[in-house]
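Lecture notes, part 5. Sequence design as translation. It can be helpful to think of inverse folding as translation between two languages: the language of shapes and the language of residues. The source text, in C-alpha cells, appears below.
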C-alpha cells in the first residue's frame, strides 16, 4: 500500500514539474520576445519619459525643466558631433569587414551577399524613419 502511495506522489510531482518546465519555456519563447519588441522607445519618447520622471520625482519648477531641456539639447548636440567625427573610422572598419567577407566568397555568393547587405540597409533605414531619427 505504501508503495502505491509513493508511486502516486512521485507521478504527481513529475506532472507538476513538467507543467512548470513547459510554462517557463513557453513564456521564454513566446511572451518574452513580444515584451522586448514593445519596450523600445523612440528618442523623443525616451526624452519625454525622462523629463517627466525628473519633473515628478525631483519636483522641478518650470525654470528647472527649461534648464534640463537645454542641458539635454546640448548633450545631444555633443553626442551627434562625436558620432559624425567617428563615422569615417566606423565606415573604414565596416568596409574592411565587407572586403574580407567578399574575399572568401565565390562570385555567386558575393552577389547574394550584396543583396543581403542591400536588404539590411533598407530595413535599417526604415527602422530609423519609424523612430524619427
Amino acid at each position: 500500500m505504501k508503495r502505491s502511495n509513493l508511486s502516486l506522489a512521485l507521478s504527481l510531482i513529475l506532472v507538476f514539474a513538467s507543467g512548470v518546465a513547459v510554462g517557463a519555456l513557453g513564456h521564454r519563447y513566446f511572451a518574452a520576445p513580444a515584451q522586448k519588441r514593445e519596450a523600445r522607445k523612440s528618442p523623443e519618447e525616451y526624452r519625454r519619459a525622462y523629463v517627466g520622471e525628473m519633473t515628478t520625482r525631483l519636483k522641478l519648477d518650470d525654470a528647472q525643466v527649461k534648464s534640463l531641456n537645454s542641458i539635454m539639447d546640448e548633450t545631444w548636440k555633443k553626442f551627434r558631433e562625436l558620432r559624425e567625427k567617428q563615422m569615417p573610422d566606423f565606415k573604414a572598419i565596416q568596409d574592411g569587414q565587407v572586403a574580407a567577407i567578399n574575399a572568401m566568397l565565390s562570385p555567386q555568393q558575393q552577389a547574394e551577399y550584396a543583396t543581403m547587405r542591400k536588404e539590411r540597409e533598407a530595413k535599417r533605414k526604415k527602422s530609423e524613419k519609424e523612430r524619427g531619427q
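The translated text above is only one of many valid answers, since several sequences can fold into similar shapes. The CA atoms of residues 38 and 118 lie 26 Å apart.
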